[in-house]
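Q: Hi! New to this. If I give you a protein sequence and the SMILES for glutathione, can you show me the bound structure?
A: Yes, paste them in.
Q: Okay, here:
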Amino acid sequence: MADVVLRYFDIPGRAEVTRLLLVYGDVPFVDKRIPKAMYPHLKPSLDLPFGSLPTLEVAGETYGCSLAIARYAATRVGLYPTHNPLLAYHVDRLATVINDVMVALFMILYMDGCPVLRSKRLRRARRRVPQLLQHLEDEASEGGCFFSVLTWVDVYLFDLIHNVLLRYCSVLRIPFDKYAKLQAIYHTVRGNSNVAAYLKRTDGAQHFRPRRVTTG
Ligand SMILES: N[C@@H](CCC(=O)N[C@@H](CS)C(=O)NCC(=O)O)C(=O)O
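A: Thanks. Here is the predicted structure of the protein with glutathione bound:
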């Protein structure tokens, strides 16, 4: 039986990088997806160390904070360079850039609220995100990953492209075709047979379809 349980909403969001890492490494886990409508009722009964999702339960203990959870999963599947502190720093540095982009886009895609504010955020994202992508492109190696070996930041980039930039391209309109090295990383991760099989299972599922987002 799986000793790992990942709890999150039934969307990619902040949990998908951990799902992908566990899938990549063939780690059996229970992918517990909580319907958003049921969350307020279930919340009091959930073990939420920081009051929010995602959480990862490992051998009966529950842990919070999405990036720390992802790094744990990456370590477990050999995609975090624990033996090389400087490489680990660079991996985390780029992961922080990707996370900043993710969070800025989540604020547009997933947060309800004032349409004027959303439009303002969208305009800023259309200006700022291409600059950050260019920065990532400049740092990526030619070999289909950021560094000389595949690390979790490659999987995180895949998540950003697949589940945010491409899925919501009609809303975000952040062009992606000019970043050849980032596209190569996308295809490296997508080409992993475990990841490919997982995408085949999940991509058509209801929870992975883009929600309607109205913007000015
Ligand atoms: N810094 C936290 C943020 C977690 C967070 O904001 N989670 C949201 C979903 S993406 C949540 O659980 N919202 C419901 C709540 O706070 O009760 C992390 O990265 O894990």
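A: The mean pLDDT is 94. Let me know if you'd like me to explain how to read the tokens.
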